[in-house]
Amino acid sequence: MLKSAKDSTFHLGLALLVGLGLLLSPVDTHASSRIKDIVTFEGVRDNMLVGYGLVVGLNGTGDGLADGHFTKQSLLSMLERLGVKSTEDGLDSKNVAAVMVTASLKPFARQGSRLDVTVSALGDADSLLGGTLLVTPLIGADGEVYAVAQGQLAVGGFSAAGAAETITKGVPTSGRIASGAIIERELNFEMAQMDDVKLSLRNPDFTTARRISQAINAFLGSSSSRPTDPGTVQLDIPDSYDGNVVNLLTDIEQLRVDPDQMARVVIDETTGTIVMGENVRISTVAIAQGSLTIRITETPQVSQPGPFAQTGTTTTVDRTAIEADEGKDKKMTVLDDGVSLQELVNGLNALGIGPRDLITILQAIKSAGALQAEIEVM
């Protein structure tokens, strides 16, 4: 295999990719995963909450309260509810900002427990640093209030500006409040009364679904579970676990199975990242890679008459250098039928190509019908 110094970074990345592929090979006893890591259980899920509120106490970095601005309307409405009668002419502050508050309601969270919330500016505020969120109801998809948020914001970014320069670090218009919301309403879901439970695979696959079902049946000594589709395994509650679904799920979630996966090549063209599964196979194909590179360099030079010369003027003379690289040192390589991931990487390394050229080559191999894998472009 031919190697060059310019490919050292690419070789290192592909070596790491091959190493990861070998570590994740199914023949490795450590490749098995717990059922709890590859499935989600019916009813055990988060629920998204959202609310609209006001942040006060900003140091002149809040919203501009122009005529008809929604922040001004919200501020007037809040003051009226608090018994303060104000006019629009009296509101000219830059210390208030309208924000959206988001949180995730964890499964089986009980009334009185707390949630972390994220606060993001909605208007034209420059920074939320030093602000305090006022009482904000958080509603779910059904329009009901499930939590109430309030507290001091923790902002990771900042912004500073002078007459000629501005510096910004992070995102100063977004912050978090740790344990900033109190749950006021619970989601009613009783697992003890369930007659069956559905297990949803995070990566749907026929083989993985059947292996999960077989592992559960072997543990229970019955045919209580069965795959209904590539993404779902249905588990009927055995009589020995009647009314005690929690213990059943606790027992089966520790069982180990070997998840299967499709042969897939994932490409992120924005960053030039390529991830290939260990099941990727290549039919016999010949590959040549080359490119034409033209480099034009402009080096203007100044021409002027000699000392004490009676004639002549100072002028600029253009100097242009053109170089053309036709990729003559590129070679062709042949990949035999059914090569593995490591053989594919070694063969493409022999061409001395970079990640972005590799993306084009993989897509061309797929178009030729020689890549036995699915290409997913992010």
UniProtKB/TrEMBL annotation:
It is found in: Bacterial flagellum basal body. Keywords: Bacterial flagellum, Cell projection, Cilium, Flagellum, Periplasm, Signal. The basal body constitutes a major portion of the flagellar organelle and consists of four rings (L,P,S, and M) mounted on a central rod. InterPro entries: Flag_FlgI (IPR001782). Its main location: other. Belongs to the FlgI family. This is Flagellar P-ring protein. GO terms for cellular component: bacterial-type flagellum basal body, distal rod, P ring; outer membrane-bounded periplasmic space. One of its GO terms (biological process) is bacterial-type flagellum-dependent cell motility. GO terms for molecular function: structural molecule activity. The gene is flgI. Assembles around the rod to form the L-ring and probably protects the motor/basal body from shearing forces during rotation. NCBIfam families: PRK05303.1. HAMAP family: FlgI. It comes from the Bacteria. The keyword Coiled coil does not apply.
